[in-house]
Sequence to fold (260 residues):
Amino acid sequence: MHVSKTYTFLMFGFILGSCPVGIRAAERSLSPPTHFSAEDQRFAVQARNLQLRNWSFDDIFAALCRAALTNARANPNVNIQDEARSIWGGLWLWTCKDAEPLPLFHAGGLGVLHPAPDGTVDHGYDVITLQKHYAQHFIAGGMFEAYFDAGRWAGVRKERLNSVTGDYFDYNKVAVTSMGARWVDVAVDGDAQHTKRWLELWASGRYTLSKSMPRLHWRSLPPFVDSTPEEVKAVEDEVDAAITFPTDTNAPPASPAKPH
Fold:
């Protein structure tokens, strides 16, 4: 779905404020009503149930990819690219209420941390809280890209809002938001067979969230200091270069993987 930046800005503020299940267009001429589908809800339920079994975020994500493949195989009328998008709607619905325990995400590894005497390591956050924030940004990037083609824009906008209100602009959070958006872009940049192969890579464990994402090594800025377009683009370009469709397209079959 393609919508204007004005509409996306309104949706961004509304969704971050209330995280609703139903989303309505601010202006009827811009877009018909949009909502998270029943399929998204099913993915959310599956993620929540696996979380209760103490599955890691890597394993939950792989399981959702397997479910998307199974759904597409079971029903020829199912659009596999819509299934890939619904994974992100499900992840958003699973986590948007801040229901604990939230998933942990550290991409390809955390950058250099600076432990403080109070046990925090980054702007007053401990390691666990930091990884929860990264997970939420990663999921938001994928959801906004899947539904509004605006994952990267939303991530940068959120950090700029933080900066002007006395918080700080974090390029690592821009990066993880871009990672979610990039995953969606690669997934749907082709035909149904392309999307199927991309899902198989993640469903089988050949690609994982902790092995196949770039390491977080970017800096943050002091409060009230804004980013530059050049630095933002450098982060996004590095993420895009790190997350690509493989040249050997013979992805392994989507066999169940044991949770860690």
